[in-house]
Fold this sequence. Notes:
Order of helices and strands: EHHHEEHHHHHHHHHEH
Distance between the termini: 14 Å
Structural class: mainly alpha
Strand content: under 5%
Radius of gyration: 21 Å
Amino acid sequence: MDIVKPYSFDKWLLAVTLILLTVGLVMVFSASGVASELIFKQPFYFLTQQAIGAVGGLILLFVMLSVRKPFYEQPLFIFGLLALTFGLLVLCFLMPTVAKTNRWISFSGIRFQPSELAKISLVLFLAWYLDRRKDKIQEPRAILAPAVVIALFTLLIMKEPDFGTALFVFFLGLILLFLGGFRPKYFLYMGIFSLPVFVYYLFAASYRLERILAFLAPDKSAQSVNFQIAQSKMALGAGGLVGASLGESVQKLFLPFPHTDFIFAILGEEAGFLGTMVTLAFFVILIWRGIAISLKAPSAFSQLAAAGLTFMLGIQALLNISVVLGLGPVKGVPLPFLSFGRSSLVCNLIVIGLLLHISQRRETQRTQA
């Protein structure tokens, strides 16, 4: 049994989240102002949309903190969220395509990307399942349910198509299974069955293979496939030690969609090496507090959930920054709290709300002692 100690949530985690959120809003406006004026005739369009997502996400965050019971541990909530996510992913294919993809749900002018919600629902389901089956985790049939859920989510997201997010969701699931105690041979089996599927989808679209080849030979494709990487490196290099100052980025005029996946490059140009290092330090603090919450959590479920949610944010940040630095092929993985995208921002703030709620829970015996 565990109880809630009101207002005992992790203050460091909340503070660093609000700082990153503020930096993100500033950088979205700085990186998108010119494009926003050209496309929508409104210099504040992208900033306004991001601010709406921030307000909505913060409201959900503080609502979750105000609820004393751990609603996210209840089977009704977990399976309801799982079914909702699956339904939304299927509904994407009935929606009008956007840029030849089926990644969004559109309703009354509001667009939502269900693959962002899939990350949260997968972590909560696997944490619940691993907690409930911890005494039978070594039985062969124990792998069936999580494998089916991971496979369904991965295939639906890959079919949108969103290869990078699908790969991320797949490995996020494997990380939770590893933390839950599954034997290594199960990962071998899942790898054998999944590898042909990933290889098929990799070769199904030529641009995916071109991105990998461009990563292996960046100089030969700087003006074509690797154009974004080349421009992002130029932006980072132009920033120097202290940057060109806010709003003075030149590369945002040449870098495609600088306010989304490559916003870290614009941050580097305008805030310099020092600005990027400070931002990285904030992400390190966020991951540190998430791991600390997991280690102190009062139950196996909350430990696994906190660890999975922390890895979700940390790995996304690592993947995004590695692409900007040219350390990996281009993938559509946003930088948490900084990249433009209401779906991603709202879901990331929900993740922080869950972590903060877990952080204020204590074991009954420990509290009485």
